[in-house]
Write a structure and sequence with these properties.
disordered N terminus; elongated; Lipocalin; 8-stranded antiparallel β-barrel
Length: about 220
């Protein structure tokens, strides 16, 4: 019995030693190096946004202020654009449009009731920005339009007014082809002249938008 145990122990020792030597001779595969994801902002994109807007309406008669009040409300819509990247710099053009419920009212002209509503607006702008990791920080400027409805007592009027806009924001690529953004825009002062009354309304508009874009190209190579 002792001989059998000794022989078995010796055989096991030889087997373990041989296995260790064989394993040491087998080359091991090195883990794949980490490759940081690279964002290429060049290309077309399309997206959607939601947000809020606020405005100030100033009613005037022959240039004399007669009443001022604030408007505010929600907005939602979409955007489409194109970017071209050269190194860290990104150039682009974008058009967006929003359905809005920006409204307000107050007394004006001493005893009469005035009401204003913006039910749609949009911008057509050029963009310029710089990249920081997966983020794009940008400014924009160009033309803007807003469809306004004005009510003096029971007299309504509506027009689409054109003006200018400037703004800026941050966009972040969080997945292949997808990015999210937050943006502020200022729509410059416009003048709305009533067709049947001797007064006008001057307005400026501010908006904040939270959006998401699908980019045809977008994130190229690497891993998150």
């Amino acid at each position: 019995m002792k001989k059998i145990v000794l022989l078995g122990t010796a055989a096991l020792t030889v087997f373990v030693a041989a296995s260790a030597a064989l394993a040491a001779d087998i080359p091991t595969k090195a883990p794949a190096p980490y490759v940081a994801a690279q964002v290429n902002w060049t290309g077309f994109y399309i997206g959607a946004h939601v947000g809020a807007g606020w405005s100030t309406a100033e009613w005037r008669e022959v240039g004399i202020p007669q009443g001022t009040y604030n408007l505010n409300g929600f907005l939602g819509g979409g955007q489409i654009g194109y970017n071209w990247q050269s190194g860290w710099a990104v150039f682009g053009v974008e058009a967006d449009a929003s359905w809005t419920d920006i409204k307000g009212s107050s007394d004006c002209f001493t005893f009469d009731f005035c009401r204003s509503k913006i039910d749609a607006l949009g911008t057509i702008t050029a963009r310029f920005g710089g990249t920081v990791d997966h983020a794009l920080i940008y400014v924009k400027g160009g033309g803007a339009w807003a469809h306004e409805k004005q009510f003096f007592a029971n007299i309504p009027d509506s027009k689409t007014k054109w003006g200018w806009t400037v703004g800026g924001g941050v966009e972040y690529a969080f997945a292949p082809n997808w990015s999210g953004k937050v943006e502020y825009d200022f729509l410059g002062r416009t003048t709305f002249a009533f067709d049947r009354e001797p007064f006008d309304i001057q307005q400026t508009v501010h908006t904040v938008k939270f959006g998401i874009n699908y980019r045809f190209g977008g994130l190229m190579g690497g891993r998150y």
